[in-house]
Automatic annotation (TrEMBL), chain A:
Mapped WD repeat ranges: 159-198
Coiled-coil ranges from the UniProt annotation: none
Domain of life: Eukaryota
Classification via InterPro entries: F-box-like_dom_sf, F-box_dom, FBXW2, WD40/YVTN_repeat-like_dom_sf, WD40_repeat_CS, WD40_repeat_dom_sf, WD40_rpt
Residue ranges annotated for the F-box domain, each copy included: 58-104
Pfam families, per the entry: F-box-like, WD40
Gene3D superfamilies in alphabetical order: 1.20.1280.50, YVTN repeat-like/Quinoprotein amine dehydrogenase
Species of the source: Modicella reniformis
Alphabetically ordered keywords of this record: Repeat, WD repeat
Signal peptide positions on this chain: none
Name of the protein this chain belongs to: F-box domain-containing protein
TrEMBL record, chain B:
Family: Belongs to the SKP1 family.
GO BP term, example: ubiquitin-dependent protein catabolic process
Protein's name according to its UniProt entry: E3 ubiquitin ligase complex SCF subunit
UniProt source species: Modicella reniformis
Subunit structure: Component of the SCF (SKP1-CUL1-F-box protein) E3 ubiquitin ligase complexes.
Domain SKP1 component dimerisation span(s) in chain numbering: 110-156
Domain SKP1 component POZ: start-end pairs: 1-63
Domain of life the protein comes from: Eukaryota
Alphabetical list of Gene3D superfamilies matching this protein: Potassium Channel Kv1.1, Chain A (3.30.710.10)
Metabolic or biological pathway: Protein modification; protein ubiquitination
C-alpha cells in the first residue's frame, strides 16, 4: 500500500464501504462496522493493483506521437535504454533515435563535447544545426570505449635488468630503450618485454638518450656523448 | 485579462491570460487573434477532463520562470526540480498520465510535457523488460535472429 498512496487508499475505502454496507443490509441491524476477512482483503488488494495499472494498459510509446515517445526516452540512461531496445520492435526502433542518443551523451556529466555552432560547408544547408547531423550513437560508443579504457587498470609489467636507477627512456612500437645509473643502456623488445641487448661504453650514469632510424645518441655524467 | 478555452467535447473554461499562455499554442493563437477574443479558443485534441487538469497544473505554475530548452541542450543535464506539488500531481493523476502527455503535447505546455515524460521514463526505469511488456501489454515480436542481434548490439554498453 505504501507505494500507491491516496488514490489506492480511496478506492480501498470505497470498496470496503460497499462490501460492508451490503453485509450490514443482510444483518439488518443498526450501525455495525464489518471488517473484511483476510481472503476478502486479498482480493480487494488484487483489484486495487489491477485497477491502478489499468490506466496504463496501453503501449504508451507506440501510441504517442514519435517526437513525444522519443522525448520520454531522453530521460533514460544508457543501461535502461538498452533495456528499452529489448522490449519490442517499436520500442527498439524508438530507442535508435538520434535525439535519444544525444540525450544519453549529454546526460553524462563528464562526457564533454564541443560543437561549433555551425560549419559552413557546401554539403550542409546553413539552417541545419550541426548537432542534429552528428551520429550520437557512434559518439556514445566511442566515448564509452574511451572511458572504459581510462578506467580499466592497465596490466603492469616490470622490466628487470638494470642494477641501478633508470634515468631516461624512449620507446616505440618495437623497442624500449632505457638509460641507467648502472652505466648501461638496455634495449627491450616491446612485445616480449625481454632485454634484447645491453650497450656499455659510458663510465658513469647514462642521463639522457635519443634515437632515430639510424643512430642513437646518449649523454652521461662522465662528460661524454656517445 | 481572461481567456476562454473550449475542450474537444464543448466544455468552456475561463482562465487568466497568463495561465493560458503557458501553452505555447494558445500564446501564439492569442497573438494572431488579438482582435476577436470574444469567442473561446477551440482545443480540438483535448477533452474537458484533461483540459481541467492541464489548467490546474498551469494555475500552480503560473509564476514559474519560463524554460526555453529548445536550443539550450545543456539544461537537460540538470533535471528540473519536481516540487511536492508536482509529485502529488503525478501520483493523483497517474491513471491519466498518458492522456495528459498527449494534451500537454498538443497544447505545447512544455513543463507539463516534461513532467509527464519524466514520470513515464521513471516507470520504465524501475521495471524489468517482462514487467514493462506486462504493464503496457506489449508483445515480444522479435524473431530469434533479431534477438541475437540485439544481444550482440548491447555488448558495447557493458564494460
Amino acid at each position: 500500500m505504501q507505494s500507491c498512496p491516496l488514490d489506492a487508499l480511496t478506492l480501498f475505502i470505497e470498496t470496503i464501504s460497499t462490501a460492508s454496507s451490503s453485509r450490514s443490509k443482510e444483518l439488518e441491524s443498526g450501525p455495525v462496522i464489518v471488517y473484511p476477512s483476510a481472503a476478502e482483503r486479498a482480493t480487494l488488494e488484487g483489484r486495487i493493483y489491477s485497477r491502478l495499472l489499468q490506466g496504463l494498459r496501453i503501449d504508451v510509446l507506440a501510441k504517442l506521437p514519435y517526437e513525444t515517445a522519443t522525448y520520454i526516452l531522453q530521460f533514460i540512461d544508457l543501461a535502461n535504454l538498452i533495456k528499452v531496445a529489448t522490449i519490442s520492435r517499436t520500442w527498439n526502433h524508438l530507442s535508435n533515435d538520434n535525439e535519444v542518443w544525444k540525450g544519453i551523451f549529454l546526460h553524462h556529466q563528464d562526457w564533454k563535447i564541443k560543437i561549433p555552432p555551425r560549419i559552413p560547408t557546401l554539403t550542409t544547408s546553413p539552417t541545419q544545426p550541426l548537432h542534429s547531423m552528428l551520429n550520437w550513437n557512434k559518439l556514445c560508443r566511442d566515448r564509452k570505449a574511451l572511458q572504459d579504457r581510462w578506467r580499466s587498470t592497465p596490466t603492469k609489467t616490470k622490466l628487470k635488468g638494470h642494477e641501478d636507477s633508470v634515468y631516461c627512456i624512449q620507446f616505440d612500437n618495437i623497442k624500449i630503450v632505457t638509460g641507467s645509473r648502472d652505466r648501461t643502456i638496455k634495449i627491450w623488445d616491446a612485445r616480449t618485454l625481454q632485454c634484447t641487448s645491453t650497450l656499455t661504453g659510458h663510465s658513469l650514469s647514462v642521463l639522457c638518450l635519443q634515437y632515430d632510424d639510424r643512430i642513437m645518441v646518449s649523454g652521461s655524467s662522465d662528460n661524454t656523448i656517445i | 485579462m481572461k481567456v476562454t478555452l473550449e475542450s474537444s467535447d464543448g466544455q468552456v473554461f475561463t482562465v487568466d491570460k497568463e495561465v493560458a499562455e503557458l501553452s505555447v499554442i494558445i500564446k501564439e493563437m492569442l497573438v494572431i487573434e488579438q482582435a476577436n477574443q470574444d469567442h473561446p479558443i477551440p482545443l480540438l485534441n483535448v477533452g474537458a477532463v484533461e483540459l481541467a487538469k492541464v489548467i490546474e497544473y498551469c494555475e500552480h505554475h503560473r509564476n514559474d520562470p519560463t524554460i526555453d530548452d529548445d536550443e539550450d541542450y545543456d539544461s537537460r543535464k540538470k533535471p528540473i526540480e519536481m516540487d511536492d506539488w508536482d509529485k502529488q500531481f503525478t501520483i493523483v493523476n497517474k491513471e491519466m498520465m498518458f492522456e495528459l502527455i498527449l494534451a500537454a503535447n498538443s497544447m505545447q505546455v512544455k513543463p507539463l510535457l516534461h513532467l509527464g515524460c519524466r514520470y513515464a521514463a521513471d516507470i520504465v526505469k524501475r521495471m524489468s523488460p517482462t514487467e514493462i511488456r506486462d504493464l503496457f501489454q506489449i508483445d515480444d515480436d522479435f524473431t530469434p535472429e533479431e534477438q541475437d542481434k540485439i544481444e550482440w548490439e548491447k555488448q558495447w554498453t557493458k564494460l
